[in-house]
Amino acid sequence: MQNRSFVGLALIVFMSTQPCVSRENIKTLKDQYQQKHPFHHKRDSSPFENVEEFAAKFDDPSRDAWQKPEEIFKFIGLKNSNKLAEIGAGTGYFSFRAAWHLKYGMVYAVDSEPKMLEFIDRKVKTLGINNLKTCKSSHNSIALPEKVDAILMVNTFHHIDDRKRYISLLKSQLVPNGKLVIVEGKPQAPMEPPRELRVNDKQIIAELKSAGFSLIGDSSVLPYQYLQMFQPD
Length: 233
What we know:
Layout: H1 13-16, H2 26-36, H3 51-58, H4 64-67, H5 69-76, E1 83-87, H6 93-101, E2 106-111, H7 114-127, E3 132-136, E4 148-154, H8 163-171, E5 174-185, H9 201-210, E6 213-219, E7 225-232
Parallel strand pairs: 1-2, 1-4, 2-3, 4-5
Antiparallel strand pairs: 5-7, 6-7
């Protein structure tokens, strides 16, 4: 994987929190995407100094209406004692909700950007949450403290360069019959990534198959994103 922060994978959220996503302003949203997120072209930069600014965008309450986190958890079939890892956790939009959902389980918020993990740690302490821990990743390895029942990747898959190798690493972090859940923007959705980074549902299935995973379920519950679930063969 090249030198990019996992949280950069999730910055498409900014566009989807805009009040209007009509056909007429999709081009404007795409232009804003390129202007706001130059790290797609400057891989060695670190644009995450002002974490609070990103948190306001990532964690905007209006996101719940289309991101439907509880529907995703229901789709996964999480039990309240399960262990879940979120790859590319950013400011913890999904990780915190998962921790509240898994009352007797554990959530690992995984990211390569230290400032985002520090932000999550501060919020965990403030809220007094005891079942959410951060996990620093690198672009070449993932090392969770323990194997997990499910791994969630939201707006992350398209940024991984050597995906076959990386997915194989994730496979080693799952319990037997563990689940890998991929959420990716659909083509023409207002928060889609640049054209050269886009992947569709069939491509995801093919690449996961080559890495030793089989599709076990998908859902159309999300208006702008694919929702697919895989298990190791």
